Amino acid sequence: MSEPGAGSDLAGIKTTAVRDGDDYVINGAKTLSVAGSWLTWSSRPLKTDPTAGHKGISLIAVDAGTPGFTKGRKLDKIGLRSADTAELSYQDVRVPATNLIGEENRGFYHLMRNLPAERLGIAIHAVAQARRAVELTMAYAQDRKAFGQPIGTFQVNRHAIADMSVLIDVMQVYIDRCITAVNAGELTAEEAAGAKMWATEQQWQIIDAAFSCTAGMGTSTSTRSPGSGATPGSSGSTAAPARSCETSSDANLALETAQPSRGSCVRHRHRLVSI
Where in the sequence numbering do the catalytic residues fall? Predict the structure, then answer.
């Protein structure tokens, strides 16, 4: 839905699809398009009636091989790298009118109908990523030693891990209930928005606590978990592998496996750690 000048304000999109006989002619641009760099088909909301606001939006599918359709650069993001995003450009892209999805000028309502499931999907990701952060933190706390004993035996870390574990269980029960509701067609837009908001806020809280337990190793991108086979200097350096008690944290704690869904950094004591 995002464009260079429009995001959550869906009615403000500028990319147009003008009817010309049995075709639509599309002009405009989209940004932050998920899978934009490798998609074979693009389905995006377009203005078929620029004077009607949100009531003039339609969903139209475009073959990526259509003349005038261009995939732009893949955006270099600070997180969620597995979901690549790119810019898309439409310049006099002509597609058959049969590529219309649903009804003309009803695209806004088609999108709104699917928003609860989409928002719930973000909440589900938040639970999974937060759970992974707890697992990595527990493994690190058991392996990393200080003062002759695993740091997981220190009371402050035991309390932190216990708090995270309980919160994960509560998140799971809450989101499971929402999944049951969406499968039954009973999840409201308000409930889905609440699940997304609350789950991502708890995700922040858990990863913040995980950083406190893993300290500097939790922010490092130069080491990996033992099972990954990667070591510092894996790009060609002959550097020796780090000690297992350091790599077992899977030092990409925030960067690759547990990125908060709502922002670009996490609060860690008195500094900001970019993820």
Answer: 118
